[in-house]
Amino acid sequence: LKNARSSGKLRLQKWYTATAERDKKKMVRELMQIVLARKPKMCSFLEWRDLKIVYKRYASLYFCCAIEEQDNELITLEVIHRFVELLDKYFGSVCELDIIFNFEKAYFILDEFLMGGEIQDTSKKSVLKAIEQADLLQEEDESPRSVLEEMGLA
Amino acid sequence: MPAVSKGDGMRGLAVFISDIRNCKSKEAEVKRINKELANIRSKFKGDKALDGYSKKKYVCKLLFIFLLGHDIDFGHMEAVNLLSSNKYTEKQIGYLFISVLVNSNSDLIRLINNAIKNDLASRNPAFMNLALHCIANVGSREMAEAFAAEVPRILVAGDSMDGVKQSAALCLLRLNRTSPDLVPMGEWTARVVHLLNDQHLGVVTAATSLIITLAQKSPDDFKTSASLAVTRLSRIVTSASIDLQDYTYYFVAAPWLSVKLLRLLQCYPPPEDTALRSRLTECLETILNKAQEPPKSKKVQHSNARNAVLLEAIALIIHHDSEPTLLVRACNQLGQFLQHRETNLRYLALESMCSLASSEFSHEAVKTHMETVIGALKTERDVSVRQRAVDLLYAMCDRSNARQIVAEMLGYLETADYSIREEIVLKVAILAEKYAVDYSWYVDTILNLIRIAGDYVSEEVWYRVIQIVINRDDVQGYAAKTVFEALQAPACHESLVKVGGYILGEFGNLIAGDPRSSPLVQFNLLHSKFHLCSVPTRALLLSAYIKFINLFPEVKATIQDVLRSDSQLRNADVELQQRAVEYLRLSCIASADILATVLEEMPPFPERESSILAKLKKKKGSGKLPENVNGSAELHAEEPAAANKASPPPPTEVLALNPTPPAAAHSLLVDVFSDLSAPTAVAEDHLSRFICKNNGVLYESQLLQVGLKSEFRQNLGRIYVFYGNKTASSFLSFSSWVSSSDVLKTQLNVHAKAVEPVIEGGAQVQQVLNIECVTDFSDVPVLNVQFRPQQEVQKIFKAQHPMETDAAKAKLLGFGVALLEGVDPNPANFVGAGIIHSKSAQVGCLLRLEPNTHAQMYRLTLRTSRDSVSQRLCQLLSEQF
How far apart are CA B57 and CA B51, in angstroms? Predict the structure, then answer.
């Protein structure tokens, strides 16, 4: 599972294992308390239940991944970084508001990058190409729409 | 309005989101959301058919509301409709909604599956990707059933686009994780392995993830992947010339793929083919070498990626555990990391070194870093790093450094975080025992543990110290002296009082010669703690007092006075009262000889795995459970013969048949005194009987008789075990089987034939054990017997009177049973016991009445030692409530 969040508010969450909604909420709350209480100099890994938590803070946003015992922590840290790079590239210097207002886009990027909890493609270009292609399709779809809308407004 | 960026046509959504953000209070937010929900609901219900765009917008709003943490109970149908739109973004939002919000048992799953099927067949890569993502995100069983055959086909199809292949690989991985039984293996496995050779590194990365999971489950089917992985890895790692373009991450060549390939190789032993093996060794050496080169970038991403690969390579080296040079190099590398300024690296180095410490090749090399690790324990500011340091110290500990490490851990314990104290206590206790050269050091260490962190010292720890003191007579005098001194402290932990009580009770005589610790002084010291202790400790102290009476006749009168006092003889606690009464009588009527026999020193405990170790393993979740769980029956039977010991029956008969000295047969000693008056003599009888005899009764209780008949020829033996049901009713779920310790399994082969699960009343069944003695042995196999006597009657009936607790209680008491509080975990239930006396026999009765006020029903269960009595009582009582 993977969650990204800012101080005390969950902005984006993705679960790669089947979990009941109530348990999810409980786990999120618990994790938030632990992670937010940690000080900047502390290490980015911690053991939690039978999982390992890897987290990193970018400005007001915390990104957390829960991984299994034998998974590689450092590479997970870089998974987070690569995801942030992708968001950054796509939104052009990403900030929390981008993720709030375009939450669906953030989900699409995450989906393109990770699938079922595993990396789908590590190349920034490939992932962004996929997203941009989708945007292009979207714009094609929507160009007549905006004209119509303007007419409706006028 | 802030940040509405690229390609976003949904103005309504943005307005809504910013409205929500402007809400000053939680109430305002809820109000705004309810307004919006009403709006959307009316739009969806309205007569006018909505166009795709509006549907998408509303569905997206619903999704946003859901993500804020509110419940959404409609809109699913509209989302499913979006799936069949041929506009990409509408489809995309539809799929997003489905994967976030639809749970697997939804009725809509058929419709969704249908839409996915269409998209998979569409040959449009973008649509196929969305469909595959949806399958992977939902990952339900229904989806696995529908697509488990289709996804592998897409994965290996020659004409699939790279992106689709990647999605298909990971989708298959997800299906394999959720429903492995549904994913057929077979014809496509070879082609999946060959994806490791694919041109496109993205495809290789995704395929490697899939192959790792598959290879873990069926290593043989994917054996060929190992050689391909080595080849691929060596191309990435050793050839500097290839430009991996976008797959180079901060000057590190394809770190993710490298890590995955190294992970894959950890599913297999080192390659047998020498060429392949040397190629792999070369790779690993290169990775280790690169760590010594100056970094190509100052960015943390560069070093993280490089070290991620390095640590995974070290994990592989440890996994292979066959190349001493590599192991030692790995250890040195980690040693450097121990002093690194990055906290993350120090943490990982400590963690990784833990596994290195257990390899015989690198154990010594790890030990050279002990001072650094001890330093880390003292100076690290992060508790999770300190925890790793404790783990590593534990792993590197051996006879040569145990004293220092234990001392450091004890020192750390004084300031350690509460969260890890218990674990440290267990570790210290285990190390102290395992590496104790002289046991006085061991005793000191454990007493220190109790002093420093008494609250974290679990029962097992003090049980263990007593076991050891009893088994080693060289330490008994020292132990008595030390606990006596420790008890002088004005405030000492209750665990110390327990240890002190037990040890002085057994070995107080060894220090009684010194006037400073004369019997009376010892007794007064113990008794000064008595009133501050809990009931179990007091019970233990009473037992120590009766032992004193035997050891020191001169304090008999004093102790009898104490036992006679009202606070003992009339104590509200049944156990304490009983002990006081019995001990007092015992001291009055028994002659010195009898007293000496009854209160003899405890016999040594059988050697066995430390109960603390079992606890630590259990805490770590990896170990086996302590034996004797849930009172399932257990009986140790030695090859020609054995002894036994029974604990009282109720639900399942519990037997423990024990080999050599017939001491306490519990695997975790519970109250060590409870064996004082146990029928060990009888058990001993049964044991010795079989040493010189081949036939006879092995065990007998009110319910069951176990007889043995055995014949031996050279190294082969056959034992017929007869189980006789002594009651008039049947035993149900009867089973008996033999289990041996791992060591014993190699020394003795025991094969038991299965027995019928039912033994009729008065009947006897026979079980044949075939035994082969491979080599001499001293351990004994365990014969486990388990059954349920059929004397229980149950009835469920409707309440005929108002269901009031007090009324029911009064009726039960009036019926003549004693009610037992705190026995049933559910406080609403009534549990009672009683005895029916008749001239010929006494019939014990247990009853449980479970009210269900909701359904206005009762469930009544009765169990007595006679079937007919159970029936009758149940019938009588069920008409009363």
Answer: 10
For B355-367, how does the pLDDT look when each residue is reduced to its tens digit (9 = 90+)? 888 888 888 888 8
Low-confidence ranges of chain B (pLDDT < 70): 1-9, 47, 103-106, 239-243, 607-612, 617-689, 702, 728, 788-791
Q: How far does the CA of residue B207 sit from the closest CA of chain A (Å)?
A: 9
CB B790 within 8 A of CB B760: no
Could B166 and A121 be called an inter-chain contact, meaning their C-beta atoms sit closer than 8 Å? yes
**B206:A118 CB<8 A:** yes
Of B3, B89, B381, nearest to A138 by CB-CB distance is B89
Q: Is B370 exposed, middle or buried (0-12, 13-18, 19+ CB in 10 A)?
A: middle
Q: Catalogue the E-assigned strands of B236-283.
A: 248-249, 252-253
Give the 3-state secondary structure percentages of chain B, helix then strand then coil, rounded to 5. Answer: 60, 10, 30
Q: Give CA–CA dist B492/B481, Å, rounded.
A: 16
- Radius of gyration of chain A from its Cα atoms, rounded to whole angstroms: 18
Nearest residue, CB atoms, A97 vs list B3, B88, B129: B3
- Contact between chains at A92 and B5 (C-beta distance less than 8 A): yes
Q: For residues B537 and B498, is the Cβ–Cβ distance under 8 A?
A: yes
Asked if B721 and B706 count as a contact pair (C-beta separation under 8 A), the reply is yes
B133·A111 Cβ contact <8 A: yes
Separation between Cα atoms, residue B61 and residue B14, nearest integer Å: 9
- Other C-beta atoms closer than 10 Å to the C-beta of B67 total 19
Owner of token pair 């459970």: B625
| Interface mutation vs chain A, best among B122, B133, B391, most A CBs within 10 Å | B133
CA distance A131 to chain B (A): 10
Contact of B395 with B387, CB cutoff 8 Å: no
**Side-chain half-sphere exposure of B55, counting CA atoms within 13 A:** 26
Q: Flag if A116 and B170 touch (Cβ within 8 Å).
A: yes
The per-residue DSSP string of B724-781 comes to EE-SSS-EEEEEEEEE--HHHHHHEEEEE----S-B-TT-EEEEEEEEEE-S---S--
Phi/psi for B707 (5° steps) reads: -115, 155
- Report the DSSP beta bridge partners of residue B293: none
- Both tokens of residue B24? 């000053």
According to the annotation, is B12 in a ligand binding site? yes
Give backbone dihedrals phi and psi of B633, rounded to 5 degrees, phi first.
Answer: -70, 150
Facing A75 at nearest CB: one of B21, B308, B344? B308
| Cβ pair A104:B167 closer than 8 A | no
**pLDDT score at B810:** 85
User: For strand B842-852 and strand B830-837, is the pairing parallel, antiparallel, or unpaired?
Assistant: antiparallel
Question: What is the structure's pLDDT at B261?
Answer: 93
Determine whether the interchain pair B344/A46 forms a contact, defined as Cβ–Cβ distance below 8 Å: no
- With CA atoms as reference, the chain A residue closest to B167 would be A120
pLDDT of residue B105: 54
Q: Which amino acid is at B5?
A: S
B624 in a labelled binding site: no
State the pLDDT at residue B623. 31
Q: Tell me which residue of B463, B540, B543, B550 sits closest to B512, measured CA to CA.
A: B550
Comparing CB atoms, the residue among B178, B245, B256 nearest residue A75 is B256
**Which amino acid is located at A100 in the chain?**
I
Helix (H) or strand (E) holding B622: none
Nearest CA to A118 among B209, B192, B254? Answer: B209
Q: Which two tokens stand for residue B666?
A: 């519990």
User: How far apart (Å, rounded) are the C-alpha atoms in residues B702 and B286?
Assistant: 73
- The string of DSSP codes covering B609-675 is --HHHHHHHHHHT-SPPPSSGGG---EE--SS----EEE--SSS-EEE---SS-----SS--SGGGG
Q: Residues B166, B198: contact at Cβ < 8 Å?
A: no
The whole-number pLDDT of residue B276 equals 92
Residue type, B354: C
Stated as kind and residue range, the H or E segment containing B185 is none
- Does the annotation place B58 within a ligand binding site? yes
